[in-house]
């Protein structure tokens, strides 16, 4: 069994990005600038956004964190987004999800300038991705592709089973694994809450990508020998023995499943850190495209 080490791989990627930023600085060029909008005080979102800002500092990017109260109206958020779209100093930005109930997430994501949409959530980018055109790929799927590529996991002609059809992970992953090329050329099955006989399906999979958010859902009897298992789950489970009062638990029963796998991601230290590294990669790409754009 080989561990797909997201902690190490994400550090490698950050080092590569930092080297490019150092060259930009040496030439006196503007460095990439990422902004993040956080609405409300959700604990997990605060942690994620904090990690994103910290990662920007590590690679030498500029970053701006915009915190808005949980009572923010949709109109106020849309007007902040317009401001970021028009601010020439910002190369890319994200709106951290989930948003408070009074705000329509779809309307908000539609307002983001696709050229600055480093999350790849705008329909323009999602559509381009589905049509094999160059676009921003959502950071978590992008991170999974990067792990597959850097570890040389074979995907050609393999049966990839994805658990969960979220717009952020499952749905884009199902498109990406079926695309021509590497990683890709997989035969993809996208499973979800209405899927019948899921064990029958997962036990035929060469590659399983679980993005469900149910701790220890995937058991050893659901996985065939030598399968590749990628765990996207990051659920906070109460744990009094930990200083924070919780521990992060994946979708996979790692202790038992890992014994059967050819490759597996740990949680924490697997897909999670890759997501942040790929957000930085998208921001670098946004800067390069922005620089070359003549308005
Ligand atoms: N919430 C959970 N995952 C993500 C993500 O990748 N981007 C944003 N903006 N919000 C999220």
Question: How would you characterize the overall build of this protein?
Answer:
By secondary structure, this protein is of the alpha/beta class. The chain has two domains: 27-113, Rossmann fold (3-Layer(aba) Sandwich), CATH 3.40.50.10860; 139-272, Rossmann fold. The chain has helices at residues 6-26, 43-59, 74-86, 105-111, 123-130, 139-150, 170-178, 198-202, 254-257, 271-291, and strands spanning 2-3, 33-39, 62-68, 92-95, 159-163, 187-191, 207-210, 228-231, 235-238, 246-249, 263-264. The strands form three sheets. The protein has a six-stranded parallel beta sheet. A three-stranded parallel beta sheet has the order 3-2-4, with helices on one face. It has a two-stranded antiparallel sheet with strand order 9-10. β9 (235-238) and β10 form a beta hairpin. α1 packs parallel to α10 (271-291), α2 (43-59) crosses α10 (271-291) and α6 (139-150) crosses α10 (271-291). The chain is globular and about 50 Å long. 42% of the residues are buried. The model has no long low-confidence stretch (mean pLDDT 97). Residues 94-97, 119, 139-140, 168 line the site of guanine.
